[in-house]
Design goal:
EC 3.4.17.19; carboxypeptidase; metal-binding; 3-stranded mixed sheet; 20 helices; Neurolysin, domain 3
Length: 490
């Protein structure tokens, strides 16, 4: 066995253990008895301690030093790049801090869920302050003289800085604000109204998952408060949620999570349990979920097919196909990021991006977060937050310690705009296929151009190779202005 072989065997075992840790998180969100929370916190902390010890094992450093990258192929060099980066980052974080974070965020998640249900930010604030303190310490340990927030962001979008994102987001904001205002000055289309059976929603969810290429023999759909995707390879699970008054929530949550899951299912099997065996970044991951959900799932062509399926499942919807399409893409004031339309969604993300930077930098105290959130929301959206569950408590991310994650949602939208341009060129009859509910060519192109590569390339390389040009915000803005300009007669 060479040093590279020994290293990869060790990494595959670490990767398998990480999958188990992910399964514990999935179970906590979906199946775990409510009284098991404290025990689960200890289980997750113990497993994180094992994983951190493996990721910082001195043998990893020895194997890396013994490997000559010149003797490796492209895949081998990519493996070494990821392993070296992970080893160096993990070695900067004390094992006790990693375990404390795992234990604390498991507890914080439960407290957040209860506080959200009770609309009581004060009940969540103390534990959130603890999470922020530990994440700030982790960021400072990782940064080695740089900014703590950039170090945390690098976990989700390697090679990107807050300054890079601020420049891109600064270019997005003016056109998004102008488009939003122009739309809200026009009459709103009729919404979909009625009461929609939960069992019928879940049947539609299953149909949509399969239509978009989710392999149910290697996955499953469950319900959760906050929909998510978990796992990779042959065990990739998703969750959705239902509302009796809003079947679109279930349908599009499912399509969105299928985008994530399809990415993980499509990665080359030989990469399994290695650093290449998962999506390369959360921005690229989000590009898949957003192009599935929006550019494909909310297109006029696909909405015609979906209108037929929902009529079969729920009866007369009271809207013809064109009015249904307008209802799917209805722009209206909304508190909730995950329920927001394409025009306003990124404004929700930019709010969170700015606030979490201030929290990590120490420029904003948790005790003042709710007030800061409400003031920024009123300034951006023109109306007031009515309760914490519609404001500062709506997202799970900060309870889980996911600081640096939020901006990858908008970055994913930017990537999706670029990918749509390339997809239209690659599949000239895309609209005709979508009218028939046939996603095979579209998802097949994404699988070949993006998903199969896993972590082989850097995030920007993946998008640049797929699109033939480096990513910019222009295609997304052009797409939004063209689509909503037609819908609202602008």
């Amino acid at each position: 066995m060479t040093a590279f072989d020994d290293l990869m065997r060790f990494e595959r075992d670490t990767g398998a253990l990480a999958q188990i840790a992910g399964r514990l998180g999935w179970d906590q969100e979906t199946m775990m008895p409510g009284g098991a929370g404290e025990q689960r916190s200890e289980e997750m902390a113990a497993l994180e301690g094992v994983l951190h010890a493996r990721r910082t094992d001195p043998r990893v450093g020895d194997w890396l030093a013994a490997v000559d990258p010149a003797t490796l192929d492209e895949e081998g060099r990519a493996q070494i790049r990821h392993i070296r980066r992970s080893f160096e980052r993990a070695s900067r974080v004390p094992g006790a801090l990693a375990a404390d974070l795992a234990r604390l965020t498991s507890r914080a998640h439960r407290i957040w869920a209860e506080a959200r249900a009770d609309d009581n930010f004060a009940a969540f604030a103390p534990v959130l302050a603890e999470v922020v303190a530990l994440k700030r310490a982790e960021g400072q340990a990782l940064a080695q003289g740089g900014t703590a927030y950039d170090a945390l962001l690098d976990d989700y979008e390697p090679g990107t800085t807050a300054a890079d994102l601020a420049q891109m987001f600064g270019a997005l904001r003016p056109r998004l604000v102008a488009l939003r205002q122009a739309i809200l000055d026009r009459p709103a289309p009729r919404p979909l109204e009625g009461t929609f059976d939960e069992a019928a929603q879940l049947r539609l969810s299953q149909l949509l998952a399969e239509t978009f290429g989710y392999d149910m023999t290697r996955g499953r759909i469950d319900k959760a408060v906050h929909p998510f995707s978990s796992g990779s390879g042959d065990d990739v699970r998703i969750t959705t949620r239902t509302s009796p008054l809003d079947p679109f929530n279930c349908a599009y949550s499912t399509i969105h999570e299928v985008g994530h899951a399809a990415y993980e299912q499509a990665i080359r099997p030989g990469y399994r349990f290695t650093p290449l065996g998962q999506g390369v970044s959360m921005g690229v991951h989000e590009s898949q979920s957003r192009i599935y959900e929006n550019q494909l799932g909310r297109s006029r062509a696909f909405c015609g097919w979906l209108h037929g399926r929902m009529t079969e499942g729920f009866g007369d919807l009271g809207l013809d196909a064109e009015a249904f399409y307008a209802a799917v893409n209805r722009v209206q004031n909304n508190y909730i990021r995950t329920e927001s339309d394409e025009v306003q969604y990124n404004l929700h993300v930019l709010l969170r991006f700015d606030l979490e930077q201030a929290l990590i930098a120490g420029d904003l105290d948790v005790v003042d977060l709710e007030e800061a959130w409400n003031a920024r929301f009123a300034a951006d959206f023109g109306f007031a937050v009515d309760r914490p569950s519609n404001g500062v408590l709506q997202d799970v991310h900060w309870s889980a310690g996911l600081f640096g994650y939020f901006p990858t949602y908008t970055l994913g939208n930017v990537y999706a705009g670029c990918l749509l341009q390339a997809l239209r060129q690659a599949v000239p009859d895309l609209e005709t296929q979508l009218v028939q509910g046939d996603l095979r060519a579209a998802t097949g192109w994404l699988r070949e151009a993006v998903q199969q590569h896993g972590g082989l390339y850097t995030p920007r390389e993946v998008i640049t190779r797929a699109c033939g040009a480096a990513p910019t915000e222009a295609p997304l803005l052009d797409y939004l202005e063209e689509k909503f300009g037609r819908l609202y007669g602008l």
